[in-house]
Amino acid sequence: MTDDTGVFALTRRTHEKRVLAALRARGASSRAQLSEATRLSRTTLSDIVTDLVARGAIVVTDTDAEQRRGSGRPAALLALDPGSAQFLGFDFGHRRVVIAIADASHKVVAQGEAEYDEHRDWRERAAIAVDLAQTMSAEHRLHFGAVQGVAAGVTGRSRKTAEPIVARELANAYGIDVVVDNNVRFAGLAEASERGSRFSTALYLHLSDGVGGAVVVDGRLHQGADRFAGEFGHVVVDPDGARCRCGKRGCLETISRLGALEGALPAELDAVAREVGRVLGAASMILNPDLIVIGGRVPTEHPGLLARIEEAVHEGTAGTAGSRPEVRAAICGPFAGARGSLIAAIHESPLLAGYAGTVFETGQPPSTRKATG
Amino acid sequence: MTDDTGVFALTRRTHEKRVLAALRARGASSRAQLSEATRLSRTTLSDIVTDLVARGAIVVTDTDAEQRRGSGRPAALLALDPGSAQFLGFDFGHRRVVIAIADASHKVVAQGEAEYDEHRDWRERAAIAVDLAQTMSAEHRLHFGAVQGVAAGVTGRSRKTAEPIVARELANAYGIDVVVDNNVRFAGLAEASERGSRFSTALYLHLSDGVGGAVVVDGRLHQGADRFAGEFGHVVVDPDGARCRCGKRGCLETISRLGALEGALPAELDAVAREVGRVLGAASMILNPDLIVIGGRVPTEHPGLLARIEEAVHEGTAGTAGSRPEVRAAICGPFAGARGSLIAAIHESPLLAGYAGTVFETGQPPSTRKATG
Questions:
Q1: Which residues of B touch A213 (CB under 8 A)?
Q2: Of the candidates A7, A200, A290, which has its C-beta nearest B10's C-beta?
Q3: Is the pLDDT of residue B351 over 70?
Q4: What is the pLDDT of residues A311-328, one digit of tens each?
């Protein structure tokens, strides 16, 4: 791809985004109205509209004959196709898959989940997910004829096995390249995005059966050299500590995962909060974040922990010229992973890749469907 | 600025970069030759050339009358103006200022340094720097009529005081906005850039009289919320440790700065290397870097330290799916800060800001001048 193509594609995306935003704000509109609303020339607009119609993102709904005063041929009205599923985000957990689907304007138009047995292999899980999406599409009258981006989160522990299988199965189903990553990283992306664009650098720490996380800079996941950034759980906090499943000793996960806190006394919880806060404090000196989000089942089941973690973070970042990061509880709930996948699908779609202006608009999910597989 | 302006400016920069690269590769060239070399239309090329000549970046050197076969009016030959200083990078240390100057093609055309008394205030230091640049310009026959970007690094400890003064004094001298930052962060930017673009994420740790660092992602400094990212020196490694100048206890700086290592026994050095490696190992789990560079006077004066730090980093990153980061000694020497400033000046110049394609080409500095102030 030459520089010119890049610049051309960027211009095109910018224009296209204006057209989609105008259609979302105005509803069905004639070409003349769109040209006025977007300040694009009729010729440019015509190119964009032709392409969007061809891709199934927008439809010709009607003509303006009824509202029309004066003479002349009635003009066609264009509208976002409410039935066009353009972006799909999957979150494959140990025992269930969650799916979020968005239209051309990045609005979530359907969310659903299906449970599966944890012994199901990844090909089976992918098939269950594709079936669920099919069921959701029937229920919400969606079609997958114009899918622009698909991403899927998988559990960190099985990422190396799961990635190629899930990528292949979903690519076969939707005829498009699929982005696959750790679902905790995607959850972090959703949590940071949900807080809005005023935060430049966000850390996400997920304390659950396992411990993981993500680093989000300017609304995008920091990837690192091998897309393994965010592994807060395997920072060593005690070189003489218990053996971790990763092989090292004294990883943060060994002391702060859900199982390790069962029946812990208040003083023990305090000590764990201090260690968690020290790791986040160290990360804060290195990354100068303005937001730290703590998610997962640990803060839900031990609600006092968050304040003590925050205290330890502030101890670790005292006396420095940078401002203190805000420490907050996660708010995206069980749909965090799927929503983060959706954001990644939007970021990575060939049409929008590298386009920092893309904003994820959550809207209100119309309904949630449960299925079992 | 509208989206169109942004896209237009990007196209313009891309074209301009092609013209400058062609002039650098070919030497003096006619418009026809440049059009062929850059595959730009004569009209587009003419606009670019007119602008570059007006800004003093390129000059009309001669005509092709001598080489020319056939008839017709001789064509003007264009060349990079070797006398045009386009980008200036300053590094203000405790006792000296270092300056690097680059031409339009980002090649370093002059480097110099001047010493000053450490009690000089920041206005005086800036004046000494401007004088040095003036002397360098006379010696290298440079003119400052077309300066596109200026950046200056200042010592971390005095950053809040120094930043506004240095920014104002240099802005007055060169008639352009000036980027000011911590000189250790700029040194890290230079060290990471010098290693080439194959590294996606680099950590820089500076162990000297003080301890600092930088995080460089895809060739750019990670800034953080308040531009205070990279403060490895103030990560707490021992909450019961010695009081640090920042007010906290047991910061990495308290044990690993040059002064703390004076007369240390081998076993003590080992312990320090282990702590340094643990902090870098933790940072590696969070950021998944492919490169870690260690600079400053400590590794120079204690040459065995690097291997022991590397060992500890690898212990902290064992058992993970990501690859190990390379741990390397700094190579930019005393010009690291000024070269990093120069890279920042190039990145931040209004013409090039946000343009990831900008590559810093060090070339061979023609000479180094020492002055005392």
A1: 286
A2: A7
A3: no
A4: 999 999 997 767 789 999
Instruction: Say how far apart CA B19 and CA B15 lie, in whole Å.
Output: 6
Q: How many CB atoms lie within 10 A of CB B117?
A: 11
Q: Which of A186-190, B75-79, B140-144, B346-350 has the lowest mean pLDDT?
A: B346-350
Judged by CB atoms closer than 8 Å, whether chains meet at B286 and A10 is answered as no
CB contact under 8 A, B319 and A234: yes
Give the CATH number of domain B196-331: 3.30.420.40
Q: Which residues of chain B neighbour A320 with C-beta distances below 8 Å?
A: 228, 231, 234, 246
- Could you confirm whether domain B3-80 is CATH 1.10.10.60? no
User: For residues A347 and A356, is the Cβ–Cβ distance under 8 A?
Assistant: no
Q: Look at residue B192 in the predicted model and tell me its pLDDT.
A: 95
The values of phi and psi at residue B293, to 5°, are: -115, 135
What is the overall mean pLDDT for chain A? 87
Mean of pLDDT over chain B: 87
Range A87-186+334-372 classified under CATH 3.30.830.10: no
Q: Cα distance from B77 to chain A (closest Cα, Å)?
A: 26
Q: How far is B322 from chain A (nearest CA, A)?
A: 6
A2, B355, B358, B363 from B14: Cα distances, Å = 10, 9, 10, 22
Q: A196-332 belongs to which homologous superfamily?
A: ATPase, nucleotide binding domain (3.30.420.40)
Inter-chain contact B226–A319, Cβ cutoff 8 Å?
A: no
